[in-house]
Structures are given as structure tokens and as C-alpha cells.
Design goal:
The chain is an alpha/beta fold. The chain is 44% helix and 14% strand. The longest helix is centred in the middle third of the chain and has 22 residues. The mean pLDDT is 97.
Amino acid sequence: MTPRELVTRTLEFDSPPRLARQLWVLPWAVQHFPEAVAELAERFPDDLISSPAFYTAELPVRGDRHAKGTCVDEWGCTFENLADGIIGEVKRPVLAEWSDLDRLRIPVERLTVDRGRVNTFCRQTDRFVLAGTVPRIFERLQFLRGSENVFCDLMDQPQELRCLIDRIHEFYLKELSVWAATEVDALYIMDDWGGQQAMLISPVLWRSIFKPLYAEYINVAHGRGKYFFMHSDGYILDILPDLVDIGVDAINAQIFCMGPERLGGQFAGTITFWGEMDRQQLLPRGSRDDIREAVGRMRETLYRDGGLIAQCEFGPGANPENVFAFFEACTNE
């Protein structure tokens, strides 16, 4: 069975012969533990990969997003980074005032994906391929306006906010449609909606503004026979029923922030949990026995003839021995 078939059977709850796996390696890990990263890739190769974008137009970016200092992304947002190997923050948003709205630059270069090269990439691998773009409408609002402004905007809901959301959303629909016309297996979006114990905004507000937007993204994917993956950090239990309702196929979430037993009791068999192993406590400070126990809890509560992908992040603070222990436990279960 190929990795692509393995992941597909996982998503369809069709009794895959083992857990599909994927490791997210942040540049921090490559800088601090290059040998461990190489060994992990050799012993536990990913079943899911992302396609390169193969843009025919150069993106107007400046600097390295993972290097200490500043960089500017294709939307014109300037990120300040205090350390190498991680991603910085936007301190001076380009749309700090609504009078700046005319300065919004839509990065149309991201629509110049060379579909032929993407298709060739997909045909030359037997792994499950995710699109090489990750729209993030809530986070993009924060990058452009600043987080404090965005939270106030969502309460006041000025006309300018609707205009900005519409322009970003229309662009993301075009971008996802470009990728849906390729031979990738799934489209993928992300937005961090949770704090440690609650949503960052009211679930009612989320449903009124953002749920319909996500539903349109999912329609683009499913309309072309693609699966739909999503990532969101933090406590998002309140909107998981909505994500299931609109057809999210796989969710990458902080399982141990919400509790695998609680998640499994409500959602096992309805959505695939695309990881993740706890990177707040267990990966940096847990023992190998702790990791094995956590993997057992994930399998017992979340796996239903599929519906669980062994995924974890090797990022700042993670103990490489625990990353190895995670994949060993997932392989031996």
C-alpha cells in the first residue's frame, strides 16, 4: 500500500494497516539537532508532503522569515523576529488606520502556480500531497490591522472591516481554486482560534462571520474531489461541531489542550485528527514512558478504523528523544 492510499483510507475510516505519519520540522530543530532531524526522516518518512508552489512570477518578499531581524511578506506585512529558527510578529501593521485601506496590496503573484509542474510533482511521488499554500483569513486580518484593532473591529463591525474581509476572502477563493485544478490530494488552511482554555472570540461571532467563509473554501475543495485539511492552535472545542458540519476532513489541533478523551467521546469517527502530540508539556519535559502513554490514549480515544494521523512538531524546546519515542510508539502500536 502506498502512503497516498494509506492516508486516504485513514480519512475514509477504512482500516488502514498502520497509522499514517507526518513530522513538522521547524528551522529551529534543523539548526539545533540536524542529525536527529536526518535520522527521523530516514526511519519514519512522512506519508504526507506539501507540493512546491512553482510560481511563474516572483513573490515580492524581502528577508528570511525564520532569521533574526525583519522580513516583509508578499502582502507587505513586516515581521520582526528576535531569534533564528522561528517566525516573528507584526509590530507595525500596514492598515493600522482605516484610511490606509487603499494601501492593501493583493499578492496576485500567488495565483501564478505552474500547474504542469505541480502535476508532475504529484505524479512522481506515491505520498499524499497537500497544496503548497495555506490561506489564513483571521491571522491575515491580524497581520494587516494588528491584533488589538481586529478584536475591536469584530465587536464594532465597521463597514471597512466587511470590505477588508471580502477582499481577502475573494483572493483566497481564487488561490484555492488554482490549487484545486491541480492533482494535489488536499487543500489546506490554517487559523489559530484558541487560547489555552477558550476561544479567542465568541463562538457565536465566529459562526456568523467566519464559518460561511470556511464553508466556501471547503466547497472549492470538495467540488474538485479534494480533501480539506485545517490547522488551528489552542482550545477550539466549541467550533469543532461546526467544522465537522461544513465538511473539514482532517483537523490539526492541540489535542491535549482539550483532552483526547473529551474529543474522542464527541468526535471520533466523524473527523480525522491530524495529530498532534502535546508540544507544551510532553515533548519538551515528558519522559519516553509519558509519550508512549499519550500515544496509547490517542489511539484508544480517537482512532475508529482510521481517523488518526501520527503527527507532531519538532520545534523550539522539544526534546529530540521524545520525538523519536512518539514515532516509535505510533509504529509499534
